[in-house]
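Lab notebook, bench 4. We co-purified these components, and the gel suggests they stay together. Before we commit to crystallization screens, I want a quick structural picture of the whole thing.
Request: model the full complex, all chains together.
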Amino acid sequence: MKREDIIRPEHLVYEKPSLLNDTPMHYCPGCSHGMVHKLVAEIIEEMGMTDKTIAISPVGCAVFAYNYIDVDWIEAAHGRAPAIATATKRMWPDRLVFTYQGDGDLACIGTAETIHALNRGENITIIFINNAIYGMTGGQMAPTTLMGMKTATCPYGRQADLHGFPLKFTEIAASLEGTAYVTRQAVHTVAAIRRTKAAIRKAFETSLQGRGSSLVEVVSTCNAGWKLSPVEANKWMEENMFPYYKLGDLKDNTI
Amino acid sequence: MNKNSEDIVLMKGNEAIAHAAIRCGCDGYFGYPITPQSEIIETLALEKPWETTGMVVLQAESELASINMVYGGGATGKRVMTSSSSPGVALMQEGITYMAGAEIPGVIVNVQRGGPGLGTIQPSQGDYNQSTRGGGNGDYNVIVLAPASVQEMADFVDLAFTLSFRYRNPAIILSDGVIGQMMERVVLPPFKPRRTEEQIKAECPWAALGRTKDRPRNVLTSLELDPGKQEEVNLRLQRKYAEIKAREVRYEEYLTEDAEYLIVAFGSAARIAQKSIEDCRRQGIKVGLLRPITLWPFPTERIKQLAEQVKHILAVEINAGQMVNDIRLAVEGRTPVSHYGRMGGILPTPDDINNQINTLL
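Here is the predicted assembly.
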């Protein structure tokens, strides 16, 4: 069989989503952001929502998300994405409006904006990347940094008396009346990636149906910040992050 | 103007802001209660414009959230606004500088009270510097309109939106507790429909409202890490500010033709100064008034001209002396400039100002 006989449209099993630009990503190799970006691009394309999507990017590693996914974007101040999404969705009720935020953006500086947007039941989706560290600023402690975990600002490990406790924000989100769908996923295996894709799609559909707010936490790796290889980071996440941040749906009012 | 009898009403300045917003095609109001301006959101809640014009009214969790809601709504090309008073506007500065940087239009109403800190709930003009110098981080300016009557509270809402969208820049209506709480006769502006999606797309091709096939994606951001490109952004913004300075200066003069002494005052201080000028004129002292309507851009050129004519310029402000510095920059030593002001929520009286003028003779 010749090469030309193999490369034919009917043999296509996978291609890069058309909404993912050719811009080289600034993310470190092994980082979860690239995978989640790809899923978001695929889902918007599959849902046929390109011309109806307004995305809000955060401050943090994903600040340049707007360079990679080919939809309209609004870049938020640190932590304020849910407030921006609130107005955007209320101004354009038929649009797919989502924020893409890290743990520092969402669970620290933007706690108030995030809780109140979710509690009002804004018909938006929040994608929450939790890698337990501040990646962009060089590996400082996050609200979700685990006990004992070492970062640039807790170099001897996180201690309760000095730093308090890692925040389970998604559990808070699930307790709010305004949320319709709250889930915690990961993208470290093919099966996990498929579950995360289904979760983000469900969240987007829930937002469009006007059922309330959705939050999809993706427990993620930051191998550069954790100072581990990509493979080691996945293993460390399974052994340390998953026992504290348990995967699965925390709330599903869509059933 | 449509002058139906139901459009002529007696109301507070704060209420006039709310009614004018509904009538001028405003798409959304986002705010957090604070004295002395809470009547704005209360009036909007009572009027229920979401049932008539479709205007959204939302009480946010903080001023920080309010201004970021304005950032978000404005980024999609909608006419959105917020209002607050001094401490709340201080909290909004983050959002205002982001709006300036990302060139997102929107209107902020500041019904000023005295500071610093929690200060007082009584009137003040202590936020002049904050408003006219940008207020947040970086090199930028905000268009600042200073109403001196309830009528201007009503009229400036549409004007602020118009200027804000013309230049893709935030605009502030810098009022104070006197104008916000005072009741006066006002002719409400005629109803103007909210813009349709097609009109918004035509007016705001930059807006993030869903990428259609006919254009590349729109990204509203103030971030640029390449120093060369960021300086280009800064220079382009400075050219825009220069254009606003050249085209949008607004002021009003009262008895300046033969004036030997000039008072410069804005907002409620200008109303008080006008009364003192009438008293001075009865005493035979030729005093005139220049009232800046735009505080930024400032009427620098006109003040420079009048400096050649008058013996002394007196800035009357309800603060420790803020606008007086802009007057001095305009005058450049051509004539003496001094300041009279009160603070703590105390207003200068016409007699106080009259006495000040008499010390200059």
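The beta strands of chain A are 53-57, 72-75, 96-102, 125-130, 133-134, 140-141, 179-186, 213-219, 248-252. Worth comparing against the SEC data before the next meeting. The radius of gyration of chain A is 18 Å.
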